[in-house]
Amino acid sequence: MYSQGLIGADGSTDESQEVLAAFQQRIDAEEKIEPNDFMPQGYRRTLIRQIGQHAHSEIVGMLPEGNWITRAPTLKRKAALLAKVQDEGGHGLYLYSAAETLGVSREEMTEELLAGKAKYSSIFNYPTLTWADIGTIGWLVDGAAIMNQIPLCRCSFGPYARAMIRVCKEESFHQRQGYEIVMTLAQGTPEQKAMAQESLDRWWWPVLMMFGPHDADSQHGDQSMAWKIKRFSNDELRQKFVDATVPQAEYLGLTLPDPDLKWNPEKNGGQGGHDFGAIDWDEFWAVVKGRGAMNRQRVEARRKAWEEGAWVREAALVHAQKRAERNRLMTQAAE
Length: 335
Ligand code: BYC
What we know:
single chain; mainly alpha; 13 helices; 2 strands; globular; disordered N terminus; binds benzoyl coenzyme A
Protein backbone atom coordinates (compact mmCIF):
# COMPACT_ATOMS: atom_id res chain seq x y z
CA MET A 1 0.00 0.00 0.00
CA TYR A 2 1.16 3.51 -0.72
CA SER A 3 1.43 5.98 2.10
CA GLN A 4 -0.87 8.88 2.77
CA GLY A 5 1.96 11.14 1.65
CA LEU A 6 0.86 10.44 -1.89
CA ILE A 7 -2.22 12.57 -1.64
CA GLY A 8 -2.01 16.22 -2.41
CA ALA A 9 1.67 15.97 -3.14
CA ASP A 10 3.16 17.68 -6.17
CA GLY A 11 4.04 16.04 -9.47
CA SER A 12 7.78 15.96 -8.77
CA THR A 13 9.40 12.67 -9.46
CA ASP A 14 12.84 11.15 -8.90
CA GLU A 15 13.14 8.46 -11.58
CA SER A 16 16.13 8.56 -13.93
CA GLN A 17 15.92 10.50 -17.20
CA GLU A 18 15.92 7.23 -19.20
CA VAL A 19 12.96 5.85 -17.28
CA LEU A 20 11.02 9.09 -17.61
CA ALA A 21 11.79 9.29 -21.35
CA ALA A 22 10.58 5.71 -21.92
CA PHE A 23 7.35 6.51 -20.09
CA GLN A 24 6.93 9.73 -22.08
CA GLN A 25 7.29 7.70 -25.28
CA ARG A 26 4.28 5.59 -24.29
CA ILE A 27 2.32 8.77 -23.52
CA ASP A 28 3.31 10.37 -26.84
CA ALA A 29 2.24 7.20 -28.66
CA GLU A 30 -1.22 7.68 -27.07
CA GLU A 31 -0.99 4.36 -25.21
CA LYS A 32 -3.28 4.13 -22.19
CA ILE A 33 -1.51 3.67 -18.87
CA GLU A 34 -3.24 1.00 -16.75
CA PRO A 35 -3.03 0.55 -12.95
CA ASN A 36 -0.50 -2.31 -13.01
CA ASP A 37 1.79 -0.60 -15.54
CA PHE A 38 4.94 1.19 -14.47
CA MET A 39 4.34 4.90 -13.89
CA PRO A 40 6.54 7.64 -12.41
CA GLN A 41 5.68 8.53 -8.81
CA GLY A 42 4.83 12.08 -9.86
CA TYR A 43 2.32 10.82 -12.44
CA ARG A 44 0.69 8.60 -9.83
CA ARG A 45 0.57 11.41 -7.26
CA THR A 46 -0.84 13.90 -9.75
CA LEU A 47 -3.62 11.49 -10.68
CA ILE A 48 -4.45 10.68 -7.06
CA ARG A 49 -4.66 14.39 -6.30
CA GLN A 50 -6.77 15.28 -9.32
CA ILE A 51 -9.08 12.24 -9.34
CA GLY A 52 -9.52 12.39 -5.55
CA GLN A 53 -10.41 16.10 -5.71
CA HIS A 54 -12.71 15.43 -8.64
CA ALA A 55 -14.48 12.68 -6.65
CA HIS A 56 -14.87 14.98 -3.62
CA SER A 57 -16.31 17.67 -5.91
CA GLU A 58 -18.99 15.32 -7.21
CA ILE A 59 -20.03 14.28 -3.70
CA VAL A 60 -19.89 17.78 -2.17
CA GLY A 61 -21.65 18.98 -5.33
CA MET A 62 -24.73 16.98 -4.30
CA LEU A 63 -25.28 19.33 -1.36
CA PRO A 64 -26.25 22.66 -2.97
CA GLU A 65 -28.75 21.00 -5.31
CA GLY A 66 -29.96 18.42 -2.77
CA ASN A 67 -31.02 21.47 -0.78
CA TRP A 68 -33.83 22.07 -3.33
CA ILE A 69 -35.21 18.55 -3.84
CA THR A 70 -38.03 19.02 -1.33
CA ARG A 71 -38.84 22.46 -2.76
CA ALA A 72 -38.89 21.70 -6.49
CA PRO A 73 -41.92 23.42 -8.05
CA THR A 74 -43.47 20.36 -9.76
CA LEU A 75 -43.30 16.57 -9.52
CA LYS A 76 -41.51 16.45 -12.92
CA ARG A 77 -38.86 18.92 -11.75
CA LYS A 78 -38.43 17.00 -8.52
CA ALA A 79 -37.92 13.68 -10.34
CA ALA A 80 -35.33 15.21 -12.70
CA LEU A 81 -33.45 16.90 -9.86
CA LEU A 82 -33.47 13.76 -7.76
CA ALA A 83 -32.05 11.77 -10.69
CA LYS A 84 -29.38 14.40 -11.30
CA VAL A 85 -28.22 14.49 -7.69
CA GLN A 86 -28.11 10.67 -7.62
CA ASP A 87 -26.02 10.73 -10.82
CA GLU A 88 -23.49 13.00 -9.08
CA GLY A 89 -23.24 10.46 -6.26
CA GLY A 90 -22.54 7.77 -8.88
CA HIS A 91 -19.84 9.94 -10.48
CA GLY A 92 -18.15 10.29 -7.11
CA LEU A 93 -18.15 6.50 -6.70
CA TYR A 94 -16.62 5.79 -10.15
CA LEU A 95 -13.96 8.39 -9.43
CA TYR A 96 -13.08 7.08 -5.96
CA SER A 97 -12.80 3.62 -7.54
CA ALA A 98 -10.52 4.96 -10.30
CA ALA A 99 -8.30 6.62 -7.65
CA GLU A 100 -8.24 3.41 -5.59
CA THR A 101 -6.63 1.57 -8.53
CA LEU A 102 -3.61 3.84 -7.88
CA GLY A 103 -3.14 2.44 -4.38
CA VAL A 104 -4.89 4.93 -2.15
CA SER A 105 -7.97 4.07 -0.09
CA ARG A 106 -11.27 5.90 0.00
CA GLU A 107 -10.79 6.30 3.77
CA GLU A 108 -7.47 8.09 3.22
CA MET A 109 -8.97 10.39 0.60
CA THR A 110 -11.97 11.20 2.79
CA GLU A 111 -9.79 11.92 5.79
CA GLU A 112 -7.75 14.35 3.72
CA LEU A 113 -10.96 16.11 2.69
CA LEU A 114 -12.25 16.34 6.26
CA ALA A 115 -8.86 17.61 7.47
CA GLY A 116 -9.04 20.42 4.87
CA LYS A 117 -5.98 19.08 3.01
CA ALA A 118 -7.72 17.82 -0.14
CA LYS A 119 -9.61 20.37 -2.19
CA TYR A 120 -12.94 20.18 -3.98
CA SER A 121 -14.27 22.55 -6.61
CA SER A 122 -14.57 26.15 -5.43
CA ILE A 123 -18.02 26.43 -7.03
CA PHE A 124 -19.70 24.33 -4.35
CA ASN A 125 -18.92 26.88 -1.65
CA TYR A 126 -21.61 29.22 -2.97
CA PRO A 127 -25.19 28.96 -1.64
CA THR A 128 -28.29 28.02 -3.67
CA LEU A 129 -30.68 30.83 -2.72
CA THR A 130 -33.50 30.50 -5.29
CA TRP A 131 -35.06 27.87 -7.55
CA ALA A 132 -33.41 29.64 -10.50
CA ASP A 133 -30.04 28.58 -9.04
CA ILE A 134 -30.92 24.97 -9.81
CA GLY A 135 -31.37 25.91 -13.48
CA THR A 136 -28.20 28.00 -13.51
CA ILE A 137 -26.14 25.24 -11.93
CA GLY A 138 -27.29 22.72 -14.54
CA TRP A 139 -26.73 25.15 -17.40
CA LEU A 140 -23.43 26.69 -16.33
CA VAL A 141 -21.78 24.49 -13.66
CA ASP A 142 -22.51 21.26 -15.53
CA GLY A 143 -21.76 23.11 -18.78
CA ALA A 144 -18.32 24.06 -17.44
CA ALA A 145 -17.85 20.52 -16.14
CA ILE A 146 -18.56 19.08 -19.62
CA MET A 147 -16.08 21.48 -21.22
CA ASN A 148 -13.44 20.33 -18.73
CA GLN A 149 -14.36 16.64 -18.76
CA ILE A 150 -14.82 15.82 -22.46
CA PRO A 151 -11.03 16.10 -22.94
CA LEU A 152 -10.55 13.95 -19.81
CA CYS A 153 -12.19 11.08 -21.77
CA ARG A 154 -8.83 11.05 -23.62
CA CYS A 155 -6.75 11.20 -20.42
CA SER A 156 -3.68 8.95 -20.60
CA PHE A 157 -4.73 7.01 -17.48
CA GLY A 158 -7.19 4.32 -18.60
CA PRO A 159 -9.56 4.03 -15.59
CA TYR A 160 -10.04 7.83 -15.36
CA ALA A 161 -10.63 8.17 -19.11
CA ARG A 162 -13.18 5.34 -19.12
CA ALA A 163 -15.05 6.70 -16.07
CA MET A 164 -15.31 10.07 -17.79
CA ILE A 165 -17.17 8.67 -20.81
CA ARG A 166 -20.23 7.76 -18.78
CA VAL A 167 -19.91 10.84 -16.56
CA CYS A 168 -19.97 13.11 -19.62
CA LYS A 169 -23.11 11.45 -21.03
CA GLU A 170 -24.88 12.10 -17.74
CA GLU A 171 -23.53 15.66 -17.44
CA SER A 172 -24.99 16.37 -20.84
CA PHE A 173 -28.49 15.48 -19.55
CA HIS A 174 -27.82 17.66 -16.48
CA GLN A 175 -26.84 20.61 -18.62
CA ARG A 176 -29.96 20.32 -20.76
CA GLN A 177 -32.32 20.03 -17.80
CA GLY A 178 -30.71 23.13 -16.29
CA TYR A 179 -30.93 25.11 -19.51
CA GLU A 180 -34.58 24.14 -19.83
CA ILE A 181 -35.34 25.37 -16.29
CA VAL A 182 -33.67 28.72 -17.06
CA MET A 183 -35.50 28.94 -20.41
CA THR A 184 -38.87 28.37 -18.69
CA LEU A 185 -38.10 31.14 -16.19
CA ALA A 186 -36.71 33.49 -18.85
CA GLN A 187 -39.92 33.09 -20.89
CA GLY A 188 -42.16 33.32 -17.82
CA THR A 189 -43.46 36.27 -15.81
CA PRO A 190 -41.26 39.38 -15.34
CA GLU A 191 -40.58 38.16 -11.77
CA GLN A 192 -39.42 34.77 -13.05
CA LYS A 193 -37.17 36.35 -15.68
CA ALA A 194 -35.71 38.65 -13.01
CA MET A 195 -35.04 35.61 -10.80
CA ALA A 196 -33.16 33.92 -13.67
CA GLN A 197 -31.11 37.07 -14.33
CA GLU A 198 -30.27 37.56 -10.64
CA SER A 199 -29.09 33.96 -10.42
CA LEU A 200 -26.94 34.35 -13.56
CA ASP A 201 -25.44 37.52 -12.06
CA ARG A 202 -24.36 35.64 -8.94
CA TRP A 203 -23.00 32.46 -10.63
CA TRP A 204 -21.26 33.75 -13.77
CA TRP A 205 -17.92 34.74 -12.26
CA PRO A 206 -17.61 31.79 -9.85
CA VAL A 207 -18.28 29.47 -12.83
CA LEU A 208 -15.39 31.04 -14.77
CA MET A 209 -13.20 30.39 -11.70
CA MET A 210 -14.00 26.65 -11.86
CA PHE A 211 -11.42 26.25 -14.65
CA GLY A 212 -8.64 27.12 -12.20
CA PRO A 213 -6.01 29.88 -12.12
CA HIS A 214 -4.62 31.51 -15.27
CA ASP A 215 -2.09 29.32 -17.07
CA ALA A 216 0.78 31.48 -15.79
CA ASP A 217 -0.28 30.64 -12.20
CA SER A 218 -1.26 27.02 -12.80
CA GLN A 219 1.19 25.03 -10.73
CA HIS A 220 0.50 21.61 -12.27
CA GLY A 221 -0.73 22.58 -15.73
CA ASP A 222 2.41 22.11 -17.86
CA GLN A 223 3.40 18.75 -16.41
CA SER A 224 -0.18 17.45 -16.57
CA MET A 225 -0.40 18.51 -20.22
CA ALA A 226 2.92 16.81 -21.02
CA TRP A 227 1.64 13.60 -19.40
CA LYS A 228 -1.66 14.02 -21.31
CA ILE A 229 -3.66 13.96 -18.10
CA LYS A 230 -4.97 17.37 -19.15
CA ARG A 231 -5.44 17.98 -22.88
CA PHE A 232 -6.16 21.72 -22.72
CA SER A 233 -4.94 24.39 -20.35
CA ASN A 234 -7.19 26.16 -17.82
CA ASP A 235 -7.35 29.34 -19.94
CA GLU A 236 -8.06 27.44 -23.17
CA LEU A 237 -11.04 25.66 -21.62
CA ARG A 238 -12.32 28.87 -19.99
CA GLN A 239 -12.20 30.61 -23.39
CA LYS A 240 -14.06 27.75 -25.11
CA PHE A 241 -16.70 27.88 -22.38
CA VAL A 242 -17.24 31.65 -22.72
CA ASP A 243 -17.50 31.36 -26.50
CA ALA A 244 -20.04 28.52 -26.22
CA THR A 245 -22.13 30.24 -23.54
CA VAL A 246 -22.53 33.74 -25.01
CA PRO A 247 -25.00 32.63 -27.75
CA GLN A 248 -26.88 30.48 -25.20
CA ALA A 249 -27.42 33.53 -22.97
CA GLU A 250 -28.47 35.61 -25.99
CA TYR A 251 -31.04 32.98 -26.96
CA LEU A 252 -32.46 33.13 -23.43
CA GLY A 253 -32.62 36.93 -23.54
CA LEU A 254 -30.40 37.15 -20.44
CA THR A 255 -27.35 39.36 -19.98
CA LEU A 256 -23.98 38.01 -18.88
CA PRO A 257 -22.81 40.34 -16.09
CA ASP A 258 -19.60 41.50 -17.76
CA PRO A 259 -19.40 44.96 -19.38
CA ASP A 260 -16.06 44.01 -20.97
CA LEU A 261 -17.47 41.03 -22.85
CA LYS A 262 -17.12 41.58 -26.57
CA TRP A 263 -16.35 39.72 -29.79
CA ASN A 264 -12.75 39.95 -30.89
CA PRO A 265 -12.21 38.70 -34.47
CA GLU A 266 -8.43 38.47 -33.92
CA LYS A 267 -8.68 35.96 -31.07
CA ASN A 268 -8.07 32.18 -31.32
CA GLY A 269 -5.57 32.57 -34.14
CA GLY A 270 -7.92 34.70 -36.23
CA GLN A 271 -10.96 32.45 -35.78
CA GLY A 272 -12.45 34.96 -33.37
CA GLY A 273 -13.47 34.68 -29.73
CA HIS A 274 -14.77 36.78 -26.88
CA ASP A 275 -12.70 39.10 -24.77
CA PHE A 276 -13.96 39.13 -21.22
CA GLY A 277 -13.36 41.04 -17.98
CA ALA A 278 -10.87 40.34 -15.20
CA ILE A 279 -11.61 37.51 -12.78
CA ASP A 280 -11.41 38.31 -9.07
CA TRP A 281 -8.63 35.91 -8.09
CA ASP A 282 -8.64 37.15 -4.49
CA GLU A 283 -12.17 35.82 -4.19
CA PHE A 284 -11.13 32.53 -5.83
CA TRP A 285 -8.21 31.91 -3.47
CA ALA A 286 -10.23 32.96 -0.41
CA VAL A 287 -12.88 30.38 -1.35
CA VAL A 288 -10.27 27.70 -2.13
CA LYS A 289 -8.59 28.34 1.23
CA GLY A 290 -11.83 27.80 3.16
CA ARG A 291 -13.25 31.31 3.47
CA GLY A 292 -16.21 30.98 1.08
CA ALA A 293 -19.83 31.38 2.21
CA MET A 294 -20.47 27.66 2.52
CA ASN A 295 -17.06 25.97 3.13
CA ARG A 296 -17.69 25.21 6.79
CA GLN A 297 -21.17 23.78 6.22
CA ARG A 298 -20.02 21.66 3.27
CA VAL A 299 -17.19 20.00 5.17
CA GLU A 300 -19.40 19.57 8.27
CA ALA A 301 -22.07 17.85 6.16
CA ARG A 302 -19.46 15.45 4.78
CA ARG A 303 -18.09 14.79 8.29
CA LYS A 304 -21.58 14.01 9.61
CA ALA A 305 -22.32 11.65 6.70
CA TRP A 306 -18.94 9.93 7.13
CA GLU A 307 -19.39 9.44 10.89
CA GLU A 308 -23.03 8.37 10.64
CA GLY A 309 -22.19 5.95 7.83
CA ALA A 310 -19.44 4.20 9.85
CA TRP A 311 -21.79 1.35 10.86
CA VAL A 312 -22.70 0.71 7.21
CA ARG A 313 -19.04 0.39 6.24
CA GLU A 314 -18.37 -1.91 9.22
CA ALA A 315 -21.43 -4.06 8.45
CA ALA A 316 -20.46 -4.35 4.77
CA LEU A 317 -16.95 -5.41 5.76
CA VAL A 318 -18.17 -8.09 8.19
CA HIS A 319 -20.65 -9.33 5.58
CA ALA A 320 -17.88 -9.57 2.96
CA GLN A 321 -15.65 -11.44 5.44
CA LYS A 322 -18.46 -13.89 6.24
CA ARG A 323 -19.10 -14.55 2.56
CA ALA A 324 -15.41 -15.10 1.89
CA GLU A 325 -15.20 -17.51 4.82
CA ARG A 326 -18.33 -19.39 3.62
CA ASN A 327 -16.88 -19.66 0.11
CA ARG A 328 -13.58 -20.92 1.52
CA LEU A 329 -15.34 -23.63 3.56
CA MET A 330 -17.48 -24.68 0.59
CA THR A 331 -14.42 -24.93 -1.66
CA GLN A 332 -12.64 -26.96 1.04
CA ALA A 333 -15.62 -29.32 1.42
CA ALA A 334 -15.78 -29.86 -2.36
CA GLU A 335 -12.11 -30.88 -2.58
N1 BYC B 1 -11.50 24.82 -7.05
O1 BYC B 1 -2.18 23.92 -11.00
P1 BYC B 1 -3.64 24.04 -11.15
C1 BYC B 1 -18.88 18.97 -11.24
C2 BYC B 1 -6.43 24.24 -7.28
S1 BYC B 1 -17.50 18.48 -10.37
C3 BYC B 1 -10.65 24.44 -6.08
O2 BYC B 1 -4.16 24.67 -12.40
P2 BYC B 1 -4.71 21.47 -11.94
C4 BYC B 1 -20.23 18.84 -10.71
C5 BYC B 1 -5.70 23.01 -7.78
O3 BYC B 1 -6.28 21.82 -7.24
C6 BYC B 1 -16.23 19.59 -10.98
N2 BYC B 1 -9.32 24.31 -6.29
O4 BYC B 1 -4.31 22.60 -10.90
C7 BYC B 1 -20.50 18.05 -9.60
C8 BYC B 1 -4.30 23.30 -7.28
O5 BYC B 1 -4.21 23.05 -5.88
P3 BYC B 1 -3.51 21.70 -5.27
C9 BYC B 1 -14.87 19.20 -10.56
C10 BYC B 1 -8.87 24.54 -7.53
O6 BYC B 1 -5.08 20.27 -11.16
C11 BYC B 1 -21.79 18.03 -9.06
C12 BYC B 1 -4.19 24.80 -7.45
O7 BYC B 1 -5.52 25.31 -7.47
N3 BYC B 1 -14.09 18.92 -11.74
O8 BYC B 1 -18.65 19.51 -12.24
O9 BYC B 1 -3.67 21.30 -13.02
C13 BYC B 1 -22.81 18.81 -9.62
C14 BYC B 1 -3.47 25.21 -8.73
O10 BYC B 1 -4.24 24.85 -9.89
C15 BYC B 1 -9.70 24.93 -8.58
C16 BYC B 1 -12.85 18.43 -11.65
O11 BYC B 1 -12.33 18.22 -10.59
C17 BYC B 1 -11.08 25.07 -8.31
N4 BYC B 1 -11.96 25.45 -9.24
O12 BYC B 1 -6.01 22.07 -12.67
C18 BYC B 1 -22.54 19.59 -10.74
C19 BYC B 1 -12.18 18.13 -12.99
N5 BYC B 1 -8.96 25.11 -9.70
O13 BYC B 1 -4.30 20.51 -5.82
C20 BYC B 1 -21.26 19.61 -11.31
C21 BYC B 1 -10.83 17.52 -12.85
C22 BYC B 1 -7.70 24.85 -9.35
O14 BYC B 1 -2.09 21.69 -5.71
N6 BYC B 1 -9.82 18.46 -12.44
N7 BYC B 1 -7.63 24.53 -8.05
O15 BYC B 1 -3.67 21.81 -3.77
C23 BYC B 1 -9.16 19.26 -13.29
O16 BYC B 1 -9.40 19.28 -14.49
C24 BYC B 1 -8.04 20.10 -12.74
O17 BYC B 1 -7.68 19.56 -11.48
C25 BYC B 1 -8.39 21.61 -12.59
C26 BYC B 1 -7.20 22.33 -11.95
C27 BYC B 1 -8.63 22.19 -13.97
C28 BYC B 1 -9.62 21.81 -11.71
